[in-house]
Amino acid sequence: MEKVEIKENLQNVFREVLDLDDLVLTDEMTAKDVDEWDSLAHIQLILNIEREFKVKFKTTEVFALKNVGEMIELLEQKIS
Amino acid sequence: MNLLSEIKVLLQQGHELSAISAAASVSRSMKNSAQLHELERALKPVSSSTWDQWCQRSIKILCLSGETFQHLAKTMKFAFKLERINAEIHFSEYHLTTDALHPSSEFIQFKPDYVLLHPTHQEISQWPELSLDSESYFADLKAQVEHWKKLAETTHSNFNCQVILDLFAPYPFSSLATGEWRCFGGSHRFIEDLNANLRTQSITGTQIHSIDRLVRQVGENLFWDHRMWVQAKISMSTVGADAYCKSIARNIGASLGLSKKCLVLDLDNTLWGGVIGDVGVEGIQIGTTSAEGEAYSRFQTYISSLKKHGVLLAVCSKNEETNAKEPFLVSQDLPLKLDDIDVFIANWSAKSQNLAQIAKSLNIGIDALVFFDDNPAERMEVITHAPQVYTVDAPEDPADYIAALDRCVLFELIQPTTEDFMRAKQYEQQRERSKLELSSGDYSSFLQSLSMQAQIQGFTPNDMNRISQLINKTNQFNVTTRRYTEADCESWMNNKDAFTLTVRLKDRFGDHGLIAVCMGEKKENSIHIDTWLMSCRVLKRGVEELVMEQIIQWANTHKIEHIKGEYLPTKKNGLVADLYSKLGFQKIDESSKGSLWQLSAPFQLPTHYIKASC
Questions:
Q1: Are A47 and B70 an interchain contact pair (Cβ–Cβ within 8 Å)?
Q2: Residues B57/B113, Cβ–Cβ less than 8 Å
Q3: What CA–CA distance (Å, rounded) separates B491 from B487?
């Protein structure tokens, strides 16, 4: 999967979970930037991303991520 | 046939209800492993008015959980919607004991219809020590059983509603393995013993839900997510959580009276191998002479076991009737007998139409039917033109038929009653009564010849199961269609200003069991009849007059001047639109919701041919 496609699909997951139809993802984005992205939403995001992309994150992997950009890179690695 | 892709086609054709029906079929299917979120996404175009047509109950659930559950809110709500229930669900996590024993006013004001208690192993306060001493182990076990029983009962009394106690998840590890059962105090065994005890305890206002079967079916490796436990205190994987949400929705659905009542079966390649019209009785595969035949025999045996707890059976086959019946009449190898079949239809009409006819003959709603047919084209026809019927997504191999049907959990009984076990026999007895009626001269002499006897009582604790079962299942002879839980019925029983009555009816052919429920409240010098329902099987036998007689006697004892009753029309209760009018009531008010009827003193006792004892 191309990086552009990953970002597009990831954006759809974020939009669905956070219930924000016009959310646009940026590489630098973190939970602090979006009100709706609380701890519960965070769990749902991880679960939904795993389901959408058919991957499984290791406990250590998830906690090491600093922002959306790193998530996209991690997904790129796991899918290839 | 891939049902999931059929959903899209159905939506394009504008068959929204059928799309939901197909999704309901997929959600219990063994083959199409679509998850709830995929089905939810597929059904996104469905309008809210179609969902209103599909949903039959609205309830509020308070979920008190020891682990993180809030993330399941959307999935759980959708699982309920597929089961025809509009559920408003509130969650509270990590404070199960406090929330149950000392609920906040916010929770009390929410007025839930159900409180779901979902404890985890963390909530076990005292684990036993590993030893060879049985005495201290069983003391520890007893203490835990008592603790959870008390917690559930206190929750019930705090919220005055039905409690669902989720049994503990099987303990995931057991290093001792078989040795755990040859000593005492192992955690795996402790949880199994605790669950086994809670399952059979009599706990006031509480029903049990258990995931052990689900875990076995899904498999432990797929059901649990140990990473999610350490990250977020979530025990179940998305696959496990999906199975859980469906199971809870079904369990509550069964408690609301939404379990199905009749299984309708095709014949060719469903109950035997081959097409009877082509190969004749000698050519069909049934019995133990071939593997294929054995698969069908086992299926027939499973189906006849359903009769034992009150499920009705019907046949709907595209065949000449003589051909269709021949195997039943000629062959010794069929476990199912013709007598086991309550309605037998073999013709060349569309099955969707026949299903409507079957529902009518049995006097049940078409939504209480389950349809099992090996032919995907027939299944699609029924989904499209009779979406209210539950169509099983039948697997291709007949050896898998039993598991496919059983896993659908369509006929669950939360608390089986004597009436459930008697139902098969009762339908047989009903056929005898009908024969007598046809041969009798006039109706009164028929009624007298039945030698009917009735036992009338107020609500008693022993009858609560059957009473709430009737209140939640009865749709036709039901003037107000008010649904009450067992907890509500207890309130009626204890209300000093209310009258409650149940009627048990017997005649010379057999015992109908408890078939009528009526209750009402005294308000100044009037009685308001809140609920009056009856099983259609005993329509026009005089039970209507018998109940009226009881109400009048209560009215006279309590110096009542007026007896009032409402008729609230629904799609299913047209039968009783003129009940009050026939009993001599006057209509005193009418609105868009329904009509209000009144009978004033002095009251005349109606006549009937039933010998009553109170």
A1: no
A2: no
A3: 7
A-interface mutation test, from B225, B227, B245, most A Cβ less than 10 A away: B227
In angstroms, what is the C-alpha Rg of chain A?
A: 12
Pairing of strands B562-567, B595-600: antiparallel
The ipTM of this complex is 0.83
Helices (H), B373-516: 376-385, 401-407, 418-439, 443-449, 464-473, 486-494
Its pTM stands at 0.82
Q: Is B102 exposed, middle or buried (0-12, 13-18, 19+ CB in 10 A)?
A: exposed
Q: What contacts B270, CB < 8 A, 6 or more positions away?
A: B372, B373, B374, B394, B401
Which positions 32-51 of A are in contact with B (Cβ < 8 Å)? 40, 43-44, 46-47, 50-51
Distance (Å) from the alpha carbon of B371 to chain A's nearest alpha carbon: 33
The predicted-structure confidence for A17-68, as pLDDT tens digits, reads as follows 888 989 999 999 998 899 888 888 888 899 899 988 989 898 888 878 889 9
Rounded to an integer, what distance in angstroms lies between the CA atom of residue B164 and that of residue A59? 33
Query: Pick from B70, B71, B230: which is nearest to A47 by CB?
Result: B71
Q: Are B59 and B85 in contact (CB under 8 A)?
A: yes
Gap between the Cα atoms of B211 and B280, Å rounded: 45
Residue of B86, B88, B115, B82 whose CA lies nearest to B100: B115
Q: Which of B58, B68, B71 minimizes the C-alpha distance to B114?
A: B58
Instruction: Inspect the interface and report whether the beta carbons of A43 and B71 lie closer than 8 Å.
Output: yes
- Residues of chain A found within 8 Å of residue B228, distances taken between Cβ atoms: 43, 47
- Closest chain B CA to residue A40: B71
Strand partners, B369: B262
Asked whether B174 and B180 are in contact (CB, 8 A), the reply is yes
pLDDT one-digit tens code per residue, B392-433:
999 999 999 999 999 999 999 888 888 888 888 888 788 788
CA distance A10 to chain B (A): 16
- CA dist., res. B379 & res. B1, Å (int): 10
